[in-house]
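Running low. Invent one:
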Amino acid sequence: MPKPARFCNRCCFCLMKPPMPASPDDLFAYFESLNILHQTAWHAPVFTVAEGRALRGEVAGGHTKNLFVRDKKGTPFLVTALEDTAIELKSLHRQLGASGRFSFGSAELMRELLGVEPGSVTPFAVLNDKDRRVSVVLDAAMMTHEVLHFHPLTNTGTTTIARADLVKFLTATGHPPRIEVLTGGDPNGDTPP
C-alpha cells in the first residue's frame, strides 16, 4: 500500500495554501508564553461600540475601537483608540506621515493581513501579520488607562489586559506601536462629550 503524500514548506501545494489565522486559544497561549495576564468574558457577537456598552454594563478600564485603514499607496494601519474618541481621518494621514488620505481597508485585506472578520478588529490580530506590514497606532488618551479591553480575534469575547502588556505583546509580534494624540482625544484621558 503506498504511503500518503506528505507536503513540506517547499512544495508548490504548501506554498499556495495560506496559513490558518490564529484562534483565540492561540492568542491566549502566546500571552502565556510572554507571561501576560489576561481575562476574557464571552458574550453574544458585538459589532458596534453601542452594542458593547449595552452588553458590558459598568466595567472599569479603557473600552476601545479599532480602525483598519490604508493610505493612498496601500500601506495598512491599525488605529486603536478609546471608544468615544473622534478620529478625523481627513487629517490623520498627515499626523502619521502616511502617503495621502486614509480609506478603510477592505474586508479581504483585513482577512489577508489580520486574519479577522469585519467587526472583530483588534490589535491582537497583528499576531497573524507575519510579514509585519501593518503599522499600529495607539491613542495616547487610551494609554492612560491601566487596563484595556479588546476582542480576542473574535467579536464574541472581550479580553482585558494591562496597557503595559499590550505594548509588550505588540513589540513581541514585531509591531512596536506608535503612541499618538489622536484628534478628539486628550492625553489626560478625557474625551469630549
